[in-house]
Amino acid sequence: MPVLGNYLAVIFIWSTTPLAIKISNSGLSAFASVALRMVMAFVLTAIVIAMIKHSAGLKRRHWPLYVVSSLGLFPNMLVVYLAANYIPSGLISVMFAMTPIASGLFASRMLGEPFLVARKMLALLVALCGLAMIFLAQAQLGPDAIFGIGLMALSVVIFSLSQVGSKYLQQRYSAEPLEQTFGALTFAIPGFVASWYVFDGAVPTVFEASSLWAVIYLAVIGSLLGFAAYFSILQQLPVALVSVIPLITPMLALWLGVVVLNETISLPLVLGSVLILSALAGYDGTLVDRLRGYAGKLVRRQT
Predict the structure, then answer these.
(1) Which of 91, 111, 120, 289 falls between 20 and 30 A from 279, CA-CA?
(2) Rounded to whole angstroms, what are the CA distances from 54 to 47, 51, 210, 260?
(3) Are the C-beta atoms of 36 and 203 separated by less than 8 Å?
């Protein structure tokens, strides 16, 4: 698929994932829904690796990288699925947009990347103001909404730690993206199955069509194709262009939640979302300059 197609695919997949999670939870418990999705994704990934690569076995020396990467799946994805029971799908996407800033905080300690600069600190304050505005708006809906926001905040922390930890270990262990994905799934699957067995344990016998199709969509499109498209654009496009995606997906996710699930959007939620996304845009002060520079290079190549 051309790079533009992969880029648009990532935007579409990231925008629709929170909505699909909400739909999958409508007919299954969060524990059963996420476990079924990950088991299906694991099987599909194993089949793809076996088809395109004869030496598909995982490398024992890469186990530390697999373990740290798996944290982005378990317990992170289980936390997201639980949060989907309490807050709108669009808010899940908005909260997840905090990940680059949280990752910057952890990277400053683990990777030595600079964070305590005026621009980044200001972006953090703006993002916290937006988060506080959303929190106060959701607090009026009751303790369930507050609990959902708390779960998503925990998810952002877990995912950011996994992301930064994986980047740190990649300096020592060189693994291909598909191998790393398969390794992360391998170490995450036992956690998903165990949590389903302990907290649910009910084997679904009747599936709602919408719920089942949502699980299949998340396994095939959200997990397998989503990872492939993301790693493809990461290799072919400047980081500046990839960094724009988290600015686009929350607004699309909010709109999809309203159209498909009749979710309501309050003014504080919109204003808070704008503050968070503005903070993300300003987090890297060179974002706009790099985008202009890349566009200029494309124009010069064509002339």
Answers:
(1) 111
(2) 11, 7, 36, 43
(3) no
